[in-house]
Amino acid sequence: MADHEVLIVGAGASGIGAAIRLRQAGITSFAVLEKATALGGTWRDNTYPGCACDVPSALYSYSFAPNPSWTRAFAGQAEIQAYLESTAARYGVVPHLRFGVEMLRASWSDADQHWEVSTSSGPVTARALITGTGPWHEPLMPSVPLDFDGPLFHSSRWDHSVDLRGKRVAVIGTGASAVQFVPAIQPLVSSLQLYQRTAQWVLPKPDHYVPSAERWLMRRVPAAQRLLRAVEYGGMEALGVGFRHPAVMRQIQRVGAWHLRRSVRDPLLRAALTPSYTLGCKRILMSNDYYPAVASSNVSVHPSGVASVSGSSVVGVDGSVTDVDVVVLGTGFKILDLPLASRVFDAAGKSLDDHWQGSPSAYLGTTVSGFPNLFNLLGPSLGTGHTSAFMILEAQLEHTVAALTALRDRGWSSLSVRPSVQAAFNSAVQAALPSTVYETGGCASYYHDANGRNSFNWPWSSRRLRDQVGRFSPGDYAIRSGVEVAS
């Protein structure tokens, strides 16, 4: 018999959500492996100045655990981390957490019908494996020489021991993290050299402090919080229409162009900050203070990539050489290099990486043919440009928990998605993507994998995602009960 009915890898929002839903379904024989010493995932790791959510707070939470106490319309890192910690405690999953335990390898045993897992604290077995390691996990380091004499760190590994006051700082990258931390550090530094390989669209952020009276109302009148969540969901869904109809997105793009014109008076700088692609082709960024910060007298924008960092200098692709004291990398994450893909093996000894060959794919972003009783949270082909990761996660958890409950209640030993079902789903995704802004917007983005295939995006509405991903249909799976395969 396996040590656990279910093993969850990762104690971020995905792993905590999975643990809560398992307990609610009466599945209590499970453990959550977390290699760090605290829960929280990306919200534990990303502590850079200005770190906050770019989805409205009311949507950025579990639907079954609404938080009436958000102090901002778009919550900051510390509040989100505190929410995850309090929710884990409130729903009784803390005793299931195994901190400081890293999963090293997981192999499916066809003979024993369970997962054999090697960890940093020893071997363990489980009937089912849930991966909750997320796409915002491993920092993406630039592929240029980084031989710097001073402090150099990635934004997701912020070195708070480095005092930036009065320093000459270089920031490499202008993505979602940089848009948040550049305004936070710009007033402190003597000079900031911003290396921008690609200009980004930045929309105004409808953020504000939530008054105590409003928070009191949310606590006392749950229907008010549900209404707020519904209104914000509707607004984000309206934006989502543009991703599927690029002509609509080009109209919304005018807001970004107006925001840039209003904030940056220098025509040369404004030209350097003006993107050449359609809004939504890359991740949409929102900020009210990024453009004013970049337009400040102590900031120099280099519309160029970086060739190397050597000694005390940053060398741009354009040949510029700038001496600095500190280098901050805002270069994002290995979004499609799923952290555990090289560590999870089928019965024949082939890893997920071996199967995928650079193009991750799964059925409904969740299950992979040949890997029985494996469920990947926030997996491939589920990313949207406009909605909350919690909504995606909860749809997957509906599917996953229904499958695990069926395993337990119907006496099945394993289930594996049929190859034809997985292939049909991914063919439909790839057929729907070409008309979206992700593919027609004229940019290169992290949505595309090593083979140039869009392995990240969901091409339809989030309502369809909720309905389709959340539904578990046993007929989609090859099911084993004992040694017999159900037809």
TrEMBL record:
InterPro entries: FAD-bind_Monooxygenase_sf (IPR051209), FAD/NAD-bd_sf (IPR036188). This is NAD(P)/FAD-dependent oxidoreductase. SUPFAM superfamilies: FAD/NAD(P)-binding domain.
